[in-house]
Structure formats: structure tokens, C-alpha cells
Amino acid sequence: MDVFTMTGRKRETYDVQMVYSSLWECALGIAAVTNSRLIDTLEKPYSYWKEVKESLSEELVNQLEYVETNNTWKALLQLLHYTKNENIEAFTTHVQSLDNVRLKFLCLPFVGDRFQDVREKAAYGDERAITALKEITKENPFFPQYIEFISKSEPTELKTHLIKVMTGWYRSVVAPELEATEQILRTDYESKKEMKAKVSAEELVQWATGGIQYLPEPSVHRVLLIPQFVYRPWTIEADIEGTKVFYYPVANESIAPHDNYMPSQSLVLKHKALGDEVRLRMVKLLSECERSLQELTDQLDLGKSTIHHHLKLLRAAKIVETNQGKYSLNRNGLELLSAELEQYVNR
């Protein structure tokens, strides 16, 4: 269907803001060590996590087991969005100052502006609201159980647990490496801040997160980018009022800030992917229109296994994407290449 538009407005987008803190690293470290299903996929090997756990006090290990059972790492992340991320003492003071209902309200997940009253009633312990909130979030693998737990937990016990696990992990794991960790986070923050002046908001999000194309959506006016080292290579996505949050993995060059010759992994992957005649031909073909594997095979007169191998490299570099069996060019990913190269050369 042909559409004739008479609007003169540009499509609205979101504002990107960035923040970093060792407290985010602390909460995400707790999330990582208690995620038994994901821990083998993290960049830090299982032996690292095993060694860390063996070095902890019995009390802290018990608190971590409580986190794993009840997913209270989510509560820590939620609360940090309403805390001045100055230091662990500020976090403790803030949690202690919250009244019972406010504590539970902040810990419960945000699921949209129109459900804020349901969220508040659930914080008061209203059974119908709790059931409704669980139904709204039923597609999430852990939200319903987590909502039940938060809504019915004893506030003083919940506060004590959150403070103990956060301060315990911070002092045992984060504090000994604090200077190095903050340097990594600060370096990545400065890198993203510099790139923000060169690219669009959507391109910045895609570059920072390693390829996530987040398009503007109603009621979301801000994207918050939070660098993290402990949960690499994963990006964690979350929602708070009016804001989409991405806890994204810091770039390789941020880990070695004194090495001005260290390129980003994204830059390396893209140049490797484009450094081949067949793959460049594929990029040209996909710039014309989306194509199936069979169509690319016919056009290039190569075997399907060979074409599939080249497509795998292009997809890993975020230059090509797939949807319902069709391959297409990720133009944003390709257009970012010049900005990434310029930033690397001028760093």
C-alpha cells in the first residue's frame, strides 16, 4: 500500500544519558555469581567464581544463596536507580530510610505507566494487585515468583538482607579491586560520551551494546547506558519510569586504557568481515534488497555451506541481520564504521 504523508515532523527519538558507578558493578556481580544457568557463559571463567565464593564468609555465602532463591539481585538494581550512587554507605543509608511500602514499590519491577497503581497496591500487599502484576509479567521467567516474594516479604528482614549482601560483596570482592574497576568504567564512560557527539542516539545505543537496535517507543524518553565489566559479554536490559536501561559490557580498549593501540572488538570484527571479496559482494547484494540463503547462493554461484560461513561472519560483525529466513544489510551498523574508526585513530 502506498502512503502519502503530510506531516513535517521528524520521527522523535530518545535522549541518551550515561552513568557509571562501582555500586552497579557490585549489584551485577551478585547477579552473576548467583545465576547458575548463565555463569558458564560469562567472560570470567567458572574457576574465578568458584575461587571467589570459597573466599567469602559463611554469612555472605548464605546471603548469596538467598539471592539465588529469590532473585533479590533485581531489588538491588531497582533500588540503585533511586539512590545517589556515591558510595556503599549512601546506599545503606537510603535503604534504611525507606518506609515499608516505598521499599517494596521500588523493588517491584516497573511494567508501564498505566500499571503503576497496580504496582503500588501490590506493595501494600493487596492480593488482587499481586495476582494482576504476576499475570502482566507472566512471560518473564522469574518476575511472577519475584513479585510474590517482594510483595509478601517482611520489610525489616528484606532491608537487612539487601544491606548485608550488598555491603558484604562490596567489601569482599569490589573494594580490593576498586581503583582498577573504576578506571575501566570511567574510561568506557568517557569513550561513549565522546562518541555521543558524533552519532545519533540510536547509533550510540547500538554501538555501546554491541548491536542492539533499540527504536523509540511511546513513553520512553530516555535511554540510560551503564557500563559494566563483571557481566561481560552480556548486555542486561531493564525498564524504569520513562527510561530504558542497558547495563552494557565495557569495550576491550577500556580494559587496557593505557594501550592507545588497542582497537575495539566491534571495529576488528567489522574490518575482518569486510576484508574479503565474497563478503563485500554479499554486502552489495543485500544493500539492494533482502535475500534468502538460496538467492545468495544462486547470485554468487557458491555452495550453501560457504555462503552460510560468510554470513555468519557478517552477522557476528553486526553488518548483516536476519528475519524470518531472509538476510538484510544492517545499515546502521555499517554507517557506524567510519565513526568507530575515526575515534580509534584519534584516541
Q: What oligomeric arrangement do these chains adopt? A: single chain
Distance between the termini: 48 Å
Q: How many individual helices?
A: 18
User: Could you estimate the helical fraction of the residues in percent?
Assistant: 55-70%
State mean pLDDT (0 to 100 scale): 90
The H/E string reads: EHHHHHHHHHHHHEEEHHHEHHEEH
Shape, per Cα inertia axes: globular
Strand content: 5-15%
Number of E-state strands: 7
* Structural domain tally: 2
Main sheet makeup:
4 strands, mixed
Chart the SSEs and their pairings.
Layout: E1 15-18, H1 22-33, H2 46-55, H3 58-70, H4 73-80, H5 88-97, H6 100-107, H7 116-123, H8 127-136, H9 143-152, H10 155-174, H11 178-196, H12 201-209, E2 222-228, E3 236-240, E4 243-249, H13 252-255, H14 265-274, H15 277-288, E5 291-292, H16 293-300, H17 304-316, E6 320-323, E7 326-329, H18 331-346
Parallel strand pairs: 1-2, 2-4
Antiparallel strand pairs: 3-4, 5-7, 6-7
Helix pairs in contact: 1-4, 1-10, 3-10, 5-10, 6-7, 7-8, 8-9, 14-17
